[in-house]
Amino acid sequence: MNPSKEYFESMHRPIQSGISNLPEEVGSISSKDGTLNVRGEWIECTSSSPTPFPTAATRNQTVILYFHGGGHAFLSPASHRDFLCRLAKQIGPGTRILSVDYRMAPEHPFPAAIHDAYAAYLYLTDPDHKALNLGERAKTLLGKERIEPRDVVIAGDSAGGNLATAFVLYLAKYVKPERMPHATILLSPWVDPTSSLPAAKSDDWYCYCPGPIGTSPFDKEAYMSFKKFHLASNYVCGDVNTAPNARNAFGKEREWAWYSHLSQHPLVSPAHCADLSGHTDTLLHTATHDRLVDDARLYAHRLGQENPEKLIRIEVYQDMVHVHHVMSVLPAARIAIKNIAHFIARSRRLRDLREGLVTAATSEAEEKNEKGMVKARGSDDNIEWVAVGPRGNEESKDEGWPISVLRNCWPQNVEKEL
Predict the structure, then answer these.
(1) Residue 294 contacts residue 400 (beta carbons within 8 Å)
(2) What is the pLDDT of residues 366-402, one digit of tens each?
(3) DSSP 3-state assignment of 352?
(4) Distance between alpha carbon 350 and the CA centroid of its chain, in Å?
(5) Is 94 exposed, middle or buried (0-12, 13-18, 19+ CB in 10 A)?
(6) Does residue 199 contact residue 291 with C-beta atoms inside 8 Å?
(7) What's the predicted TM-score (pTM) here?
(8) β strands within 80-151, DSSP E
(9) Cβ atoms within 10 A of the Cβ of 329, count?
(10) Is 222 helix (H, G, I), strand (E, B) or coil?
């Protein structure tokens, strides 16, 4: 109820000097025995044409663990069903997607969603784990004993992109499994919930995503006077009016103490995390009229610098808005879905090459059969910076605020740079 200063500070220690402490969950578990049901929805591409179901030899082995967006407060797997069906079909027959109905705020603030993500990952890769108690239906839908982590792709959009980034970081730094998923797909990821970056505070009326949707953890006055719905605070502290808990029910001063510390946690604001090494191949999608465009740009830059051996690609879609992928009538949405499928295929080839399952010559020959994609990398950060035009034309460039400005939006980042 009255955490010490040292307890608060342990929640945002730089990861390289010690794992940051995860706070206790403050949401309620309604079941009498303390267990929790984590729900999800399976989507499978049985065929891309009216032909019979593919044979085991021709089926795609990719399994996507997907986290929907919605500010950690809205939407569900049902809201993303159409988009995910189109994505599965584009990747090819045999592709399966598990869309997780993770717990959301205000009833279940951070880190409840992280725990649900890990439960879903265990369900896929280690269904016999002692922490799980699977019903027959869950076992039947899984289809086999376990899925190899090398066949798993972690993906999410907006707040689901925040959860996807946090979960991959959680695996890399807190769990350290033998093998990580082979790729991560982030669509307009919300990796700086505090709205500290310039685009998040802009008045670009083309984008339906509201802004700002958080406040800096170093600006108490802005937090206290914030009049709109504070999505970032809702995620880390909950809402005292609908779901009172130990973080929000003892006055605004106490709530500010929790917010100012938890919003700096590496699993809440991955863009400002001290150490992003150990990640997977990563594709980031954003748009010129996306208020989270700077989130994606800063995070991509950090990933490229700290994971030079991995494939890091960011595509900025011209004249598009936040998570335009779900708007199926847009040509740019169809182009983006095709590009996701191509990236997953590239990552699979690189994975097989790293594991010695194919030769470099074979990998290059297979890649020539793919759609031509701009592959020029930035000179200083090992990233494929790509601008995608309305017709899918690609150009190797990056536009917007300089990365040096984005890196210095948090005071401790300025100190680190100096």
Answers:
(1) yes
(2) 565 555 555 555 546 789 999 999 899 999 999 899 9
(3) helix
(4) 21
(5) buried
(6) yes
(7) 0.93
(8) 96-101
(9) 6
(10) helix
